[in-house]
Amino acid sequence: MEAPSTSQQHDRRSRPQESTGGLWDSVKKAAFVIGSGLFFLVAFRNSVTWHLQRFWGASGDFWQTQWTKLYIAFNGNEAALFIFGAMLVPTFFFWLVNAFLMVVDTTGKPSVITRYRIQTDKNNPVDPERLRQAVKTVLFNQLFLSVPLVVLTFSLMQWRGEPCSPELPTFHWVLLELAICGLLEEILFYYSHRLFHHPTFYKHIHKIHHEWTAPVGVVSLYAHPVEHVCSNMLPALIGPILLGSHLATTSLWFTIALLVTTVSHCGYHLPLLPSPEFHDFHHLKFNQCYGVLGVLDRLHGTDDKFRKTKAYERHTLLLSLTPLTESIPDPPKKSE
């Protein structure tokens, strides 16, 4: 056998370094995403509180006062309060955002939104009948799977602590819990999602979700019941259960999780919103980009093809009004 050439030896030595550097790059990106989200959350909370106290005459701790009023309004019925906060509030925001997106998807208007479409040749506009079928499945999953799971979660959290404690947690503790919940979701979602791509499960379960190679927002919860429980719900539930989170934190976390997955599936790379390029590429190519933050994909090498594409270059926070499909266009297709 011939001895490996100098260039081959160099390639072998450089691969571990590239892998380590790539993983660290993904960790930094994940930290940036989580850190930025928490920073804006702090700024939003402080700003809203200040304005409410200044202009509406609120006194004392504004959020604690509002929570006390809500607690009294439910007359101590903590089960009803938990269902309201952990299920109805996040679901309201989910459908509020998706109602707007569905109008845009089916009408193709306004162009100020549609010009940011990622897969420019698809969903232009979305088939209304196909969308209605997706909505029916999502409603089924929420009513007959999500609601019972949230009820079960309340029982577990009552055993764990006081999810509806009269006293709110400190805001800094809420931020820490949100970060932990995000990391736990990344781990559980990545491995459960990748498991559903195994041929044994894909054909009968996960294929339903991948009927949409160009996803839209509401498709984020369009899934087989088994997948909805194991891959959509459990990764989001596990954090609050393990941490014994207060309902205020749980409600905020569920709302954020639903809005983030909506953005990831919406099909539009809009200014100042998290980039959906990563998960959009997953729907397009199936065997890449299984996670949420991308750290585990880099660790396991399941984003190697993605990192060679223009979509990877576009996978960044858009800070201008020019669509990234224009500033970083795909290479021209080769003529057959």
TrEMBL record:
UniProt-annotated stretches for the region Disordered: 1-22
Gene for this chain: FAXDC2
Keyword Transmembrane carried by entry: yes
Major localisation: membrane
TM region(s), chain numbering: 30-48, 79-101, 138-159, 171-191
Location of the Fatty acid hydroxylase domain: 179-302
PANTHER family for the chain: STEROL DESATURASE
Organism: Pygocentrus nattereri (Red-bellied piranha)
Top-level division of the source organism's lineage: Eukaryota
Stated name of the protein: Fatty acid hydroxylase domain-containing protein
A Gene Ontology BP annotation from the UniProt entry: lipid biosynthetic process
Compartments (UniProt record): Membrane
An example Gene Ontology CC term for this record: membrane
A GO term, aspect molecular function: oxidoreductase activity
Keywords: Membrane, Transmembrane, Transmembrane helix
Entries under Pfam families matching the protein: FA_hydroxylase
